[in-house]
Amino acid sequence: xxxxxxxxxxxxxxxxxxxxxxxxxxxxxxxxxxxxxxxxxxxxxxxxxxxxxxxxxxxxxxxxxxxxxxxxxxxxxxxxxxxxxxxxxxxxxxxxxxxxxxxxxxxxxxxxxxxxxxxxxxxxxxxxxxxxxxxxxxxxxxxxxxxxxxxxxxxxxxxxxxxxxxxxxxxxxxxxxxxxxxxxxxxxxxxxxxxxx
Length: 197
Known about the structure:
Layout: E1 5-6, H1 27-40, E2 45-47, E3 57-61, H2 73-80, E4 83-105, E5 108-126, E6 132-138, H3 139-152, H4 163-178, E7 187-189, E8 194-195
Parallel strand pairs: 1-7
Antiparallel strand pairs: 2-3, 3-4, 4-5, 5-6, 7-8
């Protein structure tokens, strides 16, 4: 099932999400639906609050970057195989040099901005079988994880840009929350209570 993606302005995107237990109802189905929803919107990451469920879970599939010639063969191979579910994630450490990358978000379509993040992370999480992992990631994969992790903390990438840039995109954000956009995937708009087909 493809969920409508929650648009900017919905309060669920600002909630610090709750941990979940292994007996969470229909969890495997929700995970499968999240991947289907993400692929339908041509995304590389999706957090549960983006489908209206305020739980500490997000998914990542970096395989679209495997087609990009700017990366080495080794990097492309790594991206091709990088598909993970992160449950009850806790960021242990972020370090390394700050670097900028042009980010976007399925909940905030048509807006992209350079966001500075640290280049390396260490994160603890559980997979879909609730096995605990502590892993380190760097570069683009670390950035995708940081972006999705922010979602379960109630933080959006637009919170990380300058005040001037925030003012410049204010009307665009307002149009998104009102549903005054044309997008090729289903969205749920907070100010209209309507769902696009």
